[in-house]
Amino acid sequence: MKYQLLYLICVFIKCYVLADDFCYSDNSECEQKINRYLLYDVNPPEGFNLRLDVYMRLSILAHKMWRSSNPALNRFKLVLPPWSQLVHWEYTETPEYIPWGYYFDLESLKRFAPVIEMYEFFNEYPNKYSRVTIDEVYTLQHFEDMFETGNFEDRMELKNKCKEDLSFFLYSNITANKYYCLSYHGPATKLSQLFLNTTASSILINHAEVSLHEHFGGKVYWQARRSLRYSKELVDVAAKFRKEHLDSDDENDKTVLPGNWEDEKPGRRAVGGPYLAIHLRRRDFLRFRVKESPSLKSVAEQVSTVLIRLNFDTVYVATDASVKEFENLSSLLKKYKVKTFTPSEAFLSKYKDGGAAIVDQIICSHARYFIGTHQSTFTYRIEERREILGFDERSTFNSFCSNGGQCPETSVWKIVY
Ligand SMILES: Nc1nc2c(ncn2[C@@H]2O[C@H](COP(=O)(O)OP(=O)(O)OP(=O)(O)O)[C@@H](O)[C@H]2O)c(=O)[nH]1
Ligand SMILES: *[C@@H]1O[C@H](CO)[C@@H](O)[C@H](O)[C@H]1NC(C)=O
Ligand SMILES: *[C@@H]1O[C@H](CO)[C@@H](O)[C@H](O)[C@H]1NC(C)=O
Ligand SMILES: *[C@@H]1O[C@H](CO)[C@@H](O)[C@H](O)[C@H]1NC(C)=O
User: Fold this and answer.
1) Which domains occur in the chain, in start order?
2) pLDDT digits (tens, 9 = 90+) for 199-210
3) Among 31, 46, 233, 325, which one carries the catalytic annotation?
4) Which among 33, 254, 379, 410 has the fewest CB atoms less than 10 Å away?
5) Catalytic (active site) residue 384
6) Would you say the CB of residue 325 lies under 6 angstroms from ligand 4?
């Protein structure tokens, strides 16, 4: 009887409020109902595509905890930090919190790791006067002595003082009970050791980018990447553009994938649409990589050479260049059809710059041949997508050469199943 009463309370007020008195008994059924939440944030200046890489590190941690038999770990949900005020995106005065569902197929992500959106966390987690209190915050930082001592072993150490102040993804209605600084070197998956030491039901990892990949490019990495499918709406926008402007569709291009990423099979059968696609990273890259960045004239020459070799007349350009620069490049490529995706006002007001970037990435992923920008994470995400679609790797891992004809060695990260 007592148990039922508790159970009712458990349903109406949220269960975890009672968790402490309730679940230390060996009532495993109850234990399963109680969630723990793992939140994370990334260094503010990091761009969209590096953030996706950090997501992969954390989702692999969440995936492994989920599959663990340890009840302290397998109840964790990973809370997805909304997209807001990224440095490269057009600045908005009041932050807008774009949920992951706008960009990604959440059902697909959830087949890999137990993820939830931030707004779902706000709905599920107990709050007091519309304020949420997180139990423990860990701000990761690099070991200061790492390079001096040459000690690159995995280790973690709680410190009293943080090098930096805290921010909670711009939310003013989130506070925390306990703050720790954690000098950290090792893969994100090692963080689970920390979670075994605490009964906190919500934990925030700040500067999650300090944690590393366990096996970059390994099988689990690629599972995480394959689960990270783009949202149907954005895929549809890209498909419409491919059909109308590039004579490209999945049937003809041999890029049809099964509905569920878990059913994907290895193989390199993709042909791709009859166009060359390029990703030309400009802006900050021009400033910081002066020698490596080709002039537009050189870009046009390199594009022209490949178009002649492929016997194509169409190039799709994905770039963060200014309109002026783009027009300049187009005029240098007058002989050819130069295509680019120009989002409508309505599209931009909903999906922002991130949506346009993803449409660009999808269109580049489906081209017969691709040339990217050396060391741009934007380019890496396209290369990965082409690996998943099953292109011959020689059509994917190509980067622009510099003006002097110096061509960078493109790292080849082949898919592993
Ligand atoms: N639409 C569009 N946007 C782009 C393109 N290249 C860069 N961007 C924008 O510039 C931002 C910065 O590029 P990211 O690759 O995300 O930034 P990053 O994670 O710092 O990675 P790097 O490219 O390595 O700097 C992207 O998020 C986009 O908003 C492009 O080809 N098309
Ligand atoms: C906290 O603020 C955000 C942004 O304004 C809002 O979406 C969220 O619902 C708020 N959380 C609570 C518990 O009121
Ligand atoms: C867990 O707690 C024990 C005992 O306090 C401590 O020795 C150990 O270093 C802690 N481990 C982690 C990963 O924090
Ligand atoms: C356009 O190209 C010309 C010739 O390469 C160059 O001199 C000029 O500065 C370029 N303008 C822009 C806006 O890039």
Assistant:
1) 2-222 (3.40.50.11340), 231-395 (3.40.50.11350)
2) 999 999 999 999
3) 46
4) 254
5) no
6) yes
